[in-house]
Specification:
397 residues, Archaeosine Trna-guanine Transglycosylase, Chain: A, domain 4, Transcription Regulator spoIIAA, 11 helices, globular
Length: 397
């Protein structure tokens, strides 16, 4: 096994548990390791740091796997996959579908596994995990009884690693799966859905939002397959308007709505959200609750300024349409926008729209997305539920 010696920079970050070593932090490489192979890692003073997967073609040159030598990769994978599964079974004892492995947060950097009953959907983001896919698939099949195993990879993350964007079915098929998200039923279509098929990171927040919705008129903007709006419908909202720019996702939302038995009125609208909000303002249309869950506006640092502008415009447009005493449910999944920055954006939007906000819930991702405190990259989702009040000045004379 090759040895890698580091420069002194950022040693404190690594000692506290960060799992990435960047290419400019490497002083020398002894040997000629293949991309995706294990290497021994040493601090600048020669002290052993740990073992990790190496990739000379990536900015993330090493992904640390352990602070100890790894005598057998399969044993390590079994232990960590079952540890991750055990956590999910503890926090979600009544669920059969969740994010079972969350990459660095479960000490398996570059590997995501979403569980849908006995179907396992993988996202493989590093060369090291790619080289060991056969082991991972065998564990899922032999140790967990997987009936279907396939990948739904992210072209963005694979490009960073120099990997081709490909997907593969290893076992079974990628047919539609029926799952429960709390008390709401979904049909998850993997062949034309987004990411690995379902957004598990908002499960807990969807449950909370639904509990506020009884008797309310609701707009679920960027609705995707209907997640938030379906929970509102389950909790007897008066009506839910599902809006998304994707024809396919609106079709999924309608299928999921009909897959359940709801009493509320529903409308399924294909529209660009910014334009839809503007049209509602022009027409005088109002809602008791507006839910905003857009895709990431800032995937890179260079996008931070336009992302902030986009979030403010979006939330101002929503605040304009909310009845006095109603709710703004707003999220950001942009890692490069911090919690404090996101809250400042919303406060500024409220100020400009002459609204007073009451924050009733702030949270991140669901419990199947644990966070490594020393690795802020594992915490990306900001979720806010606000009560919204008008602040229009009236002349008493």
């Amino acid at each position: 096994m090759a040895n890698v010696k580091l420069r002194r920079i950022e040693e404190r970050r690594l000692k506290t548990g960060h799992q990435w070593i960047f290419s400019n932090e490497i002083q020398e490489v002894e040997g000629n390791p293949e991309n995706g192979s294990l290497v021994n890692i040493y601090y600048s003073n020669g002290q052993y740091l740990g073992t990790g997967f190496y990739n000379k073609h990536s900015l993330f040159a090493i992904r640390i796997l352990d602070k100890r030598p790894i005598p057998d990769l399969r044993t390590m994978f079994v232990e960590r996959i079952f540890a991750a599964l055990g956590l999910r079974e503890k926090v979600y004892p009544n669920r059969k579908s969740y994010r079972m492995v969350f990459s660095e947060s479960d000490f398996l950097p570059g590997l995501i596994i979403d569980k849908y009953n006995d179907t396992y959907v993988l996202q493989v983001n590093t060369v090291g995990m790619e080289k060991n896919l056969d082991i991972i698939v065998d564990i899922l099949h032999r140790n967990l009884g997987a009936e279907n195993v396939f990948t739904r990879n992210s072209p963005y993350f694979r490009q960073l690693e120099g990997l081709e964007f490909t997907d593969e079915i290893f076992i079974g098929n990628d047919d539609v799966q029926k799952i429960d998200d709390g008390k709401v039923k979904y049909r998850v279509n993997f062949q034309d859905g987004q990411k690995t098929g379902f957004y598990f990171d908002q499960c807990d927040n969807r449950n909370f939002t639904g509990e506020l919705a009884e008797g309310l008129t609701v707009l679920d903007a960027f609705c995707n397959s209907g997640g938030f709006g379906l929970h509102c419908a389950y909790n007897n909202a008066e009506s839910v308007d599902f809006v998304d720019s994707s024809v396919v996702e609106i079709q999924h939302a309608e299928v999921n709505f009909n897959h359940n038995v709801f009493a509320c009125e529903a409308n399924f609208i294909v529209a660009e959200v910014f334009e839809y909000l503007k049209n509602c303002a022009d027409e005088g249309k109002r809602y008791d609750m507006i839910i905003i869950d857009p895709p990431a506006f800032a995937k890179q640092k260079k996008n931070i300024i336009p992302a902030k502008q986009g979030y403010q415009k979006l939330n101002r447009s929503a605040l304009r349409l909310i009845n006095n005493g109603g709710y703004l449910i707003t999220s950001s999944c942009s890692f490069h926008i911090t919690k404090e920055e996101f809250l400042d954006i919303i406060k500024e939007a409220a100020y400009k729209e002459e609204k007073v906000l009451q924050l009733i819930r702030y949270s991140g991702a669901s419990l199947d997305h644990p966070i490594i405190p020393s690795m802020p990259e594992t915490s990306y989702l900001k979720f806010c539920a606000f009560r919204v009040f008008d602040l229009k000045q009236e002349d008493p004379s």
